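User: Here's a structure from my thesis project, written as structure tokens. My advisor, Dr. K., wants to see whether a designed sequence matches the one we expressed. Can you design one independently, without my sequence as a hint?
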């Protein structure tokens, strides 16, 4: 990548990471008040709503990613007229999708009690309707954010989201402490979502004034066909992603109990927070990679970039996974009490599921940047069916509970994703027949994380310190131990040396700017 792409990538990653860090801290604070005022049942209900709305998000068909990809070329050429035509089409599409989600969501309202095993939640349907409106509001405003992302100004949206997240969280904490009311909690969320989307929409209109001009021409047929082609390719991916991300809590709620969805939500809060942070770091360079692929056709250059990106993804996943495996239960015990913790085996399954998802982010980023959505569509449908099928078998036949649900997701990842997605990148995006060394790297990375994770857990069990002081000791010991093994195992790799050099350059520039 040239200097401008590197600068844009670092800027987007830095702001996105900072925004995610703030959101992580704020979410922990809000969830603490939520658990202490409303309890695990409402926490589970909130988690169920998120997953039901996740299912409804299927109706956007992945058009957001397809249109973002179609903006790379006109933005590179500064073709404002074509950009305006694409955005006008995007607006119409998302208006239709928003209305469709609203209607289907309202149809689901009478069936909500069937999704919850055991305990009844007061005003369940009203709470869901407010949650639904919060989701639908984004469809009518936030489509413009794709333009910022494609133009490598995603950090500006990160700033906007951080500000409104802080405002929303403060208001929700006040509502929880004073009124202990779930409905008011959701109303605050709805108001802040609408306000956030309005502000960023007005900002984008000012930044790109040509968007206010009414287009006299329809979107060119070749661009429209490419959007349709990529959207059709994304349908399968969208379906698979929704099934993987939403089916777990729905199955747990329906067959295990809504209370356990609440317990699982605490673990998901932590792992999803870390995953979001990693996604911002890894995925925020997607537009830069797309630009790189447009301008560089030599397979070896693309191949080198992919291997370096994969190593960076692995490095972050390595440290995060090992720290999560060792610190999740001690942290939750310190945070809200040991009664909210899971057995170590279940925690290990949660972390293995996390690391398998995160290590996939490199091939997914390249597939997205190259617009190869049609190549993963059918795969995602098969993956979703295998995941749901295995989860139901483990829960209903073998009575494994939450362990069975997560085990189904892990096995579907291993059986389908871990070999297919890198193959698509190497064979189609990079156009190389040689790809065995990537697979060796890929599986070496995964097994090294699991092995060091188990070794680190063994050490932490022997230390056995409790409380905040114990968390600090565990963190330092695990970080030093895993860091030492990381250097020993990988210091000879070219990707390791490249990554270290980038870090040195960043610190050198930082020190130079500080001295000036």
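Assistant: Designed independently from the structure alone:
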């Amino acid at each position: 990548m040239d200097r401008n792409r590197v600068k844009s990538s670092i800027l987007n990653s830095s702001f996105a990471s900072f925004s995610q860090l703030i959101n992580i801290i704020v979410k922990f604070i809000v969830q603490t008040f939520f658990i202490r005022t409303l309890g695990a049942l409402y926490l589970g209900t909130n988690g169920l709503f998120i997953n039901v709305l996740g299912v409804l998000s299927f109706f956007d068909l992945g058009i957001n990613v397809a249109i973002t990809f179609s903006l790379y070329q006109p933005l590179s050429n500064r073709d404002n007229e074509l950009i305006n035509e694409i955005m006008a089409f995007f607006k119409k599409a998302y208006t239709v999708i928003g209305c469709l989600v609203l209607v289907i969501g309202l149809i689901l309202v009478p069936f909500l009690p069937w999704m919850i095993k055991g305990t009844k939640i007061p005003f369940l349907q009203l709470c869901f309707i407010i949650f639904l409106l919060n989701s639908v509001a984004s469809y009518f405003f936030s489509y413009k954010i794709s333009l910022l992302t494609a133009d490598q100004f995603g950090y500006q949206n990160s700033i906007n989201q951080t500000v409104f997240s802080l405002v929303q969280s403060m208001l929700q904490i006040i509502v929880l402490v004073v009124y202990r009311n779930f409905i008011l909690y959701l109303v605050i969320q709805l108001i802040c979502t609408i306000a956030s989307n309005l502000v960023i929409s007005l900002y984008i209109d000012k930044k790109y004034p040509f968007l206010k001009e009414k287009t006299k021409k329809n979107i060119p047929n070749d661009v429209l066909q490419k959007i349709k082609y990529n959207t059709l390719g994304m349908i399968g991916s969208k379906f698979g992603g929704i099934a993987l991300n939403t089916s777990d809590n729905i199955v747990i709620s329906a067959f295990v109990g809504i209370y356990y969805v609440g317990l699982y939500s605490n673990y998901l809060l932590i792992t999803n927070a870390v995953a979001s942070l990693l996604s911002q770091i890894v995925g925020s360079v997607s537009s830069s990679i797309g630009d790189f692929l447009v301008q560089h056709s030599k397979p070896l250059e693309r191949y080198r970039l992919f291997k370096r990106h994969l190593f960076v993804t692995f490095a972050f996943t390595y440290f995060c996974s090992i720290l999560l495996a060792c610190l999740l239960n001690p942290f939750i015990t310190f945070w809200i009490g040991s009664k909210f913790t899971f057995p170590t085996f279940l925690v290990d399954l949660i972390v293995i599921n996390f690391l398998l998802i995160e290590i996939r982010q490199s091939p997914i980023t390249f597939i997205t940047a190259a617009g190869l959505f049609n190549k993963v569509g059918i795969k995602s449908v098969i993956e979703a069916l295998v995941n749901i099928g295995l989860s139901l078998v483990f829960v209903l036949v073998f009575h494994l509970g939450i362990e069975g649900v997560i085990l189904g997701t892990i096995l579907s990842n291993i059986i389908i994703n871990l070999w297919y997605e890198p193959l698509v990148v190497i064979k189609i995006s990079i156009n190389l027949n040689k790809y065995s060394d990537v697979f060796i790297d890929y599986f070496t990375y995964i097994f090294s994380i699991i092995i060091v994770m188990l070794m680190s857990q063994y050490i932490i069990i022997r230390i056995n310190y409790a409380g905040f002081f114990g968390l600090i000791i565990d963190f330092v010991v695990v970080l030093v131990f895993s860091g030492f093994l990381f250097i020993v195992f990988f210091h000879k790799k070219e990707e390791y040396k490249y990554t270290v050099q980038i870090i040195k350059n960043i610190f050198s520039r930082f020190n130079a700017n500080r001295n000036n």
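When you compare it with your expressed construct, this may help: The mean pLDDT is 85.
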